[in-house]
Structure formats: structure tokens, C-alpha cells
Amino acid sequence: MWDALFINAEIATMRAGGAPYGLISDGAVGVKGGAIAFVGPMRDLGADIGDVARNVHDVGGDLITPGLIDCHTHLVWAGERSGEFEVRLLGTSYEDIAAAGGGIMATVAATREASEEALFDAAMTRLQDFLAEGVTTIEIKSGYGLDIEPELKILRVARALEDEDNIRVRTTFLGAHALPPAFDDRDAYIDFVCNEMLPAAHDEGLVDAVDGFCETIGFSPDQIERVFEKAAALDLPVKLHAEQLSDQGGARLAANYGALSADHLEYLAAKDAAALAEAGTVAVLLPGAYYYLRETQKPPVAAMRKAGVNMAVATDCNPGTSPTTSVLLAMNMACTFFDLTAEEALAGVTRNAAKALGLDDCGVIDVGKRADLAIWDARRPAELVASVGQNPLLARLFGGALCP
Ligand code: NIG
Ligand code: FE
Q: Is 108 helix (H, G, I), strand (E, B) or coil?
């Protein structure tokens, strides 16, 4: 039998291929040993639920979804960049700020200065917002250290967050994020990333995936390719910040390397959608960064949909281009700005977000999957997507345990 049973629920299982949202009305979810042991209509439960009577939760028609997954964040940083926001309002571009030594480098300077404890506290405060919105898995990138010790510090903090709270953390090494001041040669820095930083982080067991920033103000496809080669040699999956500000061919490169995801993609050429689909590389849409940079170029969502690309949605939580901690807001923006359907937006923070992290034990409600669930004060899944700045979460289940 079950450790706990949730009855009278509207269940958006997010299983692909069936009803919209994989919806089960008048449904029940049974949980045992941290996994889902039953999901289906109430009528399939049978009469014998007596021995879990104390752990039967009647949710009274409320909505249950998979726990949400934010598959792209830069959660661990110090400092703040409101001054850049002010000058961008007056017309200075994100690239101009980077060229003048601000932008990512401003956050790198503050993050290097900060102690591990201070970074942990700041990140933990942000993490609470994610938990409050029903997030059960979060990806966290390094990339604000850009030297061995500070990169390891960020990744250690990311791992420590997982130890401390009811959340699953996937860490991504983003050493190839920007050129630090100690280097004036991008190729020499990439050598350092490949030969020293990434191996050091990997040796400590701190890396679940490897990312890079393929951009004029970041690194060229050739330089990123060297990072991908090193990742492959270490048997680590790759991801890429691609086509955020210009079309560098980064998404094609990512697809060639079987990347888990290519992220941003505002400047992706429609014809390149096919390469992502073929490789099974998830397109991670980051509407918060599009909004905050007041970008006008939109990712080619219709072409990606037509090509059969799996699309995820994430916050990109970071101090420079997307200072938000709200997955629900990102879902809404993915619809209003990028024309996703409400169902695509919810799949983007559940089923497809799991794929973008290479996880196959979460993101849908199905027997055998982790019992990571969110219970909402809502009757229809679209309610989660349609609101702006509201949070109807009632409860979060992590590995079968009801979290406070
Ligand atoms: O995903 N594009 C590169 N990296 C981050 C922004 C980092 C920053 O500006 O601090 C992003 O948008
Ligand atoms: Fe990012």
C-alpha cells in the first residue's frame, strides 16, 4: 500500500501523448518510499485504502502537478547591478557595459570577494522563493568566479544548498562565461578552463554538466568546441548559452555534440531548429532575459514547434539580465512574449526541463517516478500560467515528504 494518498485531485501528469496536460480529473496519487506508486482516476483505486486512512489527503478538487524544475539559473552570486539597469535605460547596451568591464565582470568581482558563507546565505534567500513556487529541482551554474578557487566556491555553495534543504540541485560548470582580467587572450583562457579549472571542479565531484557563453562578448564556436571536447573526455554532458545576442551558430555546435540543451536562442535561424530536434537537444527559453534586456528579437518558436524541438522554460535567475526568482512569471512571459501555449509553458518547467538536465526520474507524474509534486489552489493547469505575480501553491512534496 501507500505511505500517503492524495484524493479528489485534478492531476496534470504532464505525460506526453495523451490528453492535454496528461490531465486526470477526479484523480488520486499514491506515494510510497519516495516514489509515485499510483496515479489514476479515483474509480481505479479500489475500495481498499483503509490502512493509509491517516495519510489520505482530500485535496477537494485542487490541482496537482509535477514539482517544478528550473533548468537554468545562476543562483549563486554577490553584489547587485541596478546601476547598469539605470544606464541601460538611458541607452547604453549590455554589450557596451561588458566592453567597459562591467556586466558579468562586475558580478565576478563581487563574488570573488564574498565568503562562502555570505554566498550561501544570499543564494539560500533566493532559493526560498523557488521553493515557495513549488520548485523541487533547480540547476545552478558557476561562471561568476572565472578562476579555480572562486569557481569551486560557487559550485560548493550550490551543492551545500542541496544538503541544507528539500531540493535537488544540478550543478553546471560555466567557466567559459567571460574573459577574466588576468587574461588578455581568449584562447589562453580556454586552455586554462580545459586543462585546469574544469578538471579541478570535476575532481571534487562538483560538475553535473558543462556550459559556455557562445557570443561576441563571450567565446567563439571554435573556443566552445574545445570546452565541449574536454567535457566529452570527462564524460560530462554539455549545454550552451547560444544565439542570445547574435547568431554565432552555437545551437548547431551544441546539437553536433548532443548537448542536453541550447539556451536563449533569440537569434537562432529558423532553419537550425531541425538540428536541435534531430539531436534531441532541448531549447531552453529564457523570457526573463529577453524582457529585462528589452530585446525585440524573439526565438523562432513556431519553427521549433514544427521541427519537433522540445522546449523548456527557465528563469535564468541572475543579477544582470534576469533578476527574477519566479518560475511562474517565466511561464507567463514565455506565453505572452514567445507565443507558447499554456500547456507548452507547463511542459517547459516539468517534462522538458527534466530532459534539459538529463533527468528521467522526474518532470511527469507517473508510477516509479520520484514523488516530487506541487499542489495548487487552482482548478485548471492554465491558471498557473495565466496569472502575473500571484502564487497559488498550497503544498510541495519532495521525494514523497510534505515540506513546510
Ligand atoms: O544567461 N548570457 C550570459 N549569461 C547570463 C547573464 C550573466 C550576467 O549578465 O550576469 C545570461 O543571460
Ligand atoms: Fe544564463
A: helix
210-242 pLDDT, tens digit each = 999 999 999 999 999 999 999 999 999 999 999
DSSP string, 234-271: TT--BEEEESSSS--SHHHHHHHTT-SEEEE-TT--GG
Neighbours of 230 (CB within 10 A): 20
End-to-end CA distance of the chain: 25
Nearest-CA residue for atom 6 of ligand 1: 321
For residue 210, the surrounding DSSP H or E stretch is strand 209-214
Between CA 266 and CA 27 the distance in angstroms is: 39
Place of cell 495565466: 386
* pLDDT(50) > 70: no
CB 66 within 8 A of CB 29: no
Instruction: Tell me which amino acid residue 162 is.
Output: E
User: What are the φ and ψ backbone dihedral angles of 157, each rounded to 5 degrees?
Assistant: -60, -40
Take atom 5 of ligand 1 and give the residue whose Cα is closest.
321
Nearest CA to 291 out of 106, 136, 47, 88 is that of: 88
Confidence check: pLDDT of 123 > 90: yes
CA of 318 to the centre of ligand 1 (A): 7
Degrees to nearest 5, angle at CA 27 with 138 and 362 = 20
The tens digit of pLDDT for each residue in 286-344 reads: 999 999 999 999 999 999 999 999 999 999 999 999 999 999 999 999 999 999 999 99
Residue 49 confidence (pLDDT): 64
Phi, psi torsion values for 373, nearest 5 degrees: -135, 155
Structural domains of the chain sorted by starting position, each given as residue range(s) with its CATH number in brackets: 2-66+364-402 (2.30.40.10), 68-356 (3.20.20.140)
- In our burial notation (b when 16+ CB lie closer than 10 A, e otherwise), range 370-383 reads bbbbbbbebeebbe
The pTM (predicted TM-score) of the whole model is 0.98
Q: Which of 267, 44, 259 is nearest to 5 (CA)?
A: 44
Ligand 1 binding pocket, CB closer than 6 Å: 103-104, 107, 213, 241, 244, 289, 316, 318-321
Instruction: Output the CA torsion 340→343→348→354 (10° steps).
Output: -160
